[in-house]
Hints:
37% of the residues lie in helices and 22% in strands.
Amino acid sequence: MASLVLTDSSQLTSDSQDLDDIKRLLCIGIFPPNSGTGIGRDLVKRLLKYGAEVVAISRTKKHLDSLEAEVKTTKLKTINADLSDWNMARRAAEEAGPIDCLVNNAATAILEPFFDIKPESIDDSFNINVKSIINVSQVIAKGMVDRKNGGTIVNVSSQAAKARHN
Length: 166
């Protein structure tokens, strides 16, 4: 199996230039909120460079459009979906089709003083950081099991990610 090592947002190494075991990859949350860059975007570009077919899901259409314009390849499929919406996220994961490797990179952090935290902030954070990961992983893992091919699911998380300030 090809091993992937992401050491930082600009360096991805692989022991196999053609990524033999990863034919089709789904990367969710390719852009941090309110940004056009990030680990997810860099990962998508690097995997495309290695020849993988990549499906990228993001809630921000303009970021998906800019990625498509930058990479100019038929090996990239983009899906515009709000992962905090359970049904929309599920449909997007199903639309992605058979996936060999899922990278769960979706995350948000809403920073508010402790006494000012609103229930909506907790709901938004939980919907993206927990529920969307479980939801999309269920769809993709079910496909992996049904195809009897196995696969890989990578969960990326960090409190140090860019945060959205309200």
